[in-house]
Amino acid sequence: MPDLIAQGPEQQQRWRRPITLDTVIVLGRTMTPWSVAWDDHISREHARLRWQGGRLQVDRLPSASNPIFVNGRPVDSCALRPGEYFVIGSTTFTVTDEQINVSLDVPRPAAEQTFSQEFLREVKFRNADQRIEVLARLPGIIAGAANDTELSVRMVNALFTGIPAAAAAAIVAVDPQRAGRETRVLHWDRRLVSGDDFRPSERLIRAAIDAGENVVHVWKGDQQRESAGFTEVENVDWAFCTPIPGEACHGWAIYVTGQFADGGQSSPRVMEPSDLRDELKFTEVVATTFSNHHEVRRLEHERASLSPFFSPIVLAALSSQAGEVVLAPRETEVSVLFCDLRGFSRTSEQAADDLLGLLERVSRALGVMTRQIFDQGGVVGDFHGDAAMGFWGWPIAQEDAVQRAARAAMGIVAEFEQASQRPGDPLTDFRVGLGIATGLAVAGQIGTTDQVKVTVFGPVVNLASRLEGMTKVLRANVLLDERTARFIRGNVATDVARVRRLAVVRPYGMQHPLEVSELLPPVADYPRLTDANIADYEMALDALQNGNWDDAFELLHQIPPDDRAKDFLTVFIAQHNRTAPSGWDGVIPIETK
Predict the structure, then answer these.
(1) Domain 111-299 bears CATH identifier 3.30.450.40
(2) What does the pLDDT read at residue 73?
(3) Domain boundaries, the chain
């Protein structure tokens, strides 16, 4: 693949970019990634480039203020072969088809030495001013990089500026997961166009990455040059490889090759690896800067990838600790909420000819659930079609996890009820059923090597799901297990939330009875059911369990008729002619899921 090299009047004003075949490129001062921001003589959109038939076709655009020069003559268009160039303003653009081929077929060095990071930290620069000036510009170089590719270009340019003897440089990566540990070249450049391929030593790259330290190879003397095609082609005396630290750049390294200042065939004297200590120290700093930037980008990406699951409160806590430690699966106390849409099947049938519109409505409904979970500091554990699951108590402990789950549930119900009062609202036809259960579970990043997600599993999750399903049978919006209900009764003020015991049931497929309660808003928000009404209902439930079904039936009729939850007990009593069956133990079996 051919490349285009732009070189401004200063060393750092440079880039090398591959030209994609049959792709139109617009070159200009602001045309990222083909921008030449350092040259005021180049217009915002100056030239159109396209590789065709082994040549780069260059056409000056009408918006260009200054001419394009080829061989000192202004032209409006030209077709350039590799090795040829054009000039705009003070910038030279060279077409090249040089390739980089990482190879094991490189002569072994006359000398090899490894330098640790600790040793280089103690080394003082012999020519400090020039290198410190370049290092001082690194923060600006990083800030101006729009993406990782642009950062690599800028870092290689910084290496050329800080290492005058460097002939070529590359950022490489060895992937241990790939067959043969393939070495990839992320970006490379050469100070002078030679027309020959650049062949870095794969042996040197692997030695440095495996050791995790700087490794230097030196070729020297006339005899060595004559026997080494590599050094003849590249005209180099030395090469070194510096690993890039950090998890974000695992297996990456910087490869630099060049000449000794007084080297060459006329100087057969031995040059030692220790002569390159300044170059190594400088490259170490560049590598660390490069790594820090990628680590920040990785953390930002990780944070962004977690944002669909975690509330801002949880994300803030995660940012102060190691994510892999905090997110590791562990057993913990959680409160789990399941929320499912009601009316989805009916609505989907009616919207069969507008499935995209239905998808938008369901997405908005799930958005209500997610927002309420996040507002209460919870984690979104999963989506199941038209249902969502959230939980509290992980990755950070929350003593008020139950209360947070209750607030989220009431917030979800309230939003859907408000939407039902607005004609034409996308959520008008939807209702919700919710179940909340509290107990031990395993929470964390769970899954296989191919798919990992943040979720929670255990009996308490199944219980919350069962409770959500029973809302259809018991005709209540939010159902609680006994542990959750007991906590709310004892720790949450009635002006925040109320609890009503609904029944003791044996869910379908379960052996043990379960006391089910209903979560209700405070009287101020739900005046149609007073505290006295709740007391009457619970007295009716006690009478039912004790076998006094006539008393239970009478008490239930004191509850307002629009309270649909009481219908569950009323119908059950009526079906048995108000008489407790033989062996009545106070538990109502539920025959369906």
Answers:
(1) yes
(2) 95
(3) 3-96, 111-299, 312-492
Give the pLDDT mean for 497-526: 92
Asked if 111-299 and 312-492 have one fold, the answer is no
Angle at 234 between CA 228 and CA 239, to 5 degrees: 85
- How many CB atoms are closer than 10 A to CB 147? 11
Q: What is the fold, at CATH topology level, of the domain defined by 312-492?
A: Alpha-Beta Plaits (3.30.70)
Q: What is the CATH number of domain 3-96?
A: 2.60.200.20
Q: Hey, CA dihedral for 317, 491, 505, 372, is it positive or negative? A: negative
In tens, the pLDDT along 12-57 reads 888 999 998 878 999 999 888 898 989 999 999 999 999 988 899 9
Cα-trace Rg, the chain: 36
- The model's pLDDT over 222-257, given as tens digits with 9 standing for 90+, comes to 444 444 443 333 567 899 999 998 877 888 999 999
CA–CA gap between residue 399 and residue 461 (Å, rounded): 19
The whole-angstrom separation of Cα 544 and Cα 526 is: 26
pLDDT above 80 for 309: no
Q: Omega into 33 within 30° of 0, i.e. cis?
A: yes
3-state helix, strand, coil in the chain (%, to 5): 35, 25, 35
Beta carbons of 309 and 380 less than 8 angstroms apart:
yes
| Mean pLDDT score of the chain | 84
- Give a three-class secondary structure readout of 160-218: HHHCCCEEEEEEEEECCCCCCCCEEEEEEEECCCCCCCECCEHHHHHHHHHHCCEEEEE
Task: With a cut of 70, say whether residue 533 has pLDDT above it.
Answer: yes
pTM, full prediction: 0.56
Report residue 100 CA to chain centroid gap: 32
For 53, residues 6+ apart whose C-beta sits below 8 A from its C-beta are: none
